[in-house]
Amino acid sequence: MTELIIRTERTDGNAVVTVGGDLDYDSHGRLDDAVDAALHDPPAGLVVDLAAVTYCDSCGLRVLLGAHRRATEAGATFLLRGARGQPARALKLTGLDQVFG
């Protein structure tokens, strides 16, 4: 298990949440909290970068889907980027790759 690392920054009016490690049952709450904080002062867009995520289970997918919903409700665009390996396969198998575009 790889510890989840989260970094949030504001760039060009967007909130960029960069995630690394395992996004799973034990860690998904931390990403959920980071998304809430990023949307507290609604940005133009919310970008979640999964390039350094090594594993994502159903709890992680649920958080990503919730982030998409909350960003849309806040009037922000949502972009999921950088998913590869197992997280990309999980998104494809569940059809969420089509939801996130």
From TrEMBL:
Q: Which PROSITE patterns match?
A: STAS
- Which CDD domains does the annotation name? STAS_anti-anti-sigma_factors
Q: Which family does it belong to?
A: Belongs to the anti-sigma-factor antagonist family.
Which is an annotated Pfam family here? Answer: STAS_2
Gene3D superfamilies with a match to the protein in the record: STAS domain
Q: Which organism is it from?
A: Actinomycetospora flava
- Protein name (database record): Anti-sigma factor antagonist
Domain STAS residues, every copy: 4-101
> Any signal peptide, and if so, which residues?
none
